[in-house]
Amino acid sequence: MTSGRAERKGMKQVYSRAAIGCGCFALALILSSCGEKTPPDTRAADESAIRALDAQWSKTSAARDVDGAVSYYSDDASLLPPNAPIASDKQGIRASWASLLTPDTSLTWQAEKVEVARSGDLAYVMGVYQMTSKDAHGKPTSDTGKFVEVWKKQADGKWKTTVDIFNSDVAVQVAAAPAPVRKAAPRHRQATKRKRHRKTQQSDN
After folding, report:
1. What domains does the chain contain, in order, with CATH numbers?
2. From CA 39, how far away is CA 21, in angstroms rounded?
């Protein structure tokens, strides 16, 4: 009898320890899942915010506000304009915009696609632009093209452009090569040819 009671008591202790162990494991899983909670999906709201910012940026550029246009870039932004080196600081970016937004230039653009990362900190924008200006002779010219912008959410929660690239759809006009100029033969060669021609005529006579 004593042996049976001791055995049952030992079994109860084993079951009790197992239950405590399972309970601790379940609690650890619950705490772990709470700590790794998936952040809310804000892509729809971020897309709307970026579209609004990009539309306002276009209006700022149409008003030829150079400083306003540059304010949409992050401090570490890079601008990749066509037919020019990369501008990788605010001073270089401002110089590029200052040369673009002249009194004779009108520039606007529209975003056609905005894609936001699930992480909510990066996005890209694709679209088209229209630009009119005047050439050196005052003749109006027009240009259309496309662009890609990479936007990054800053520490303060604001979206800024960190990479900006654009280029024209208009084909580059290549000037025709000038016709080769035929050089006149040196005078001494011309004189030699005339002498040979006279000798030929004399021999024939």
Report:
1. 43-168 (3.10.450.50)
2. 31
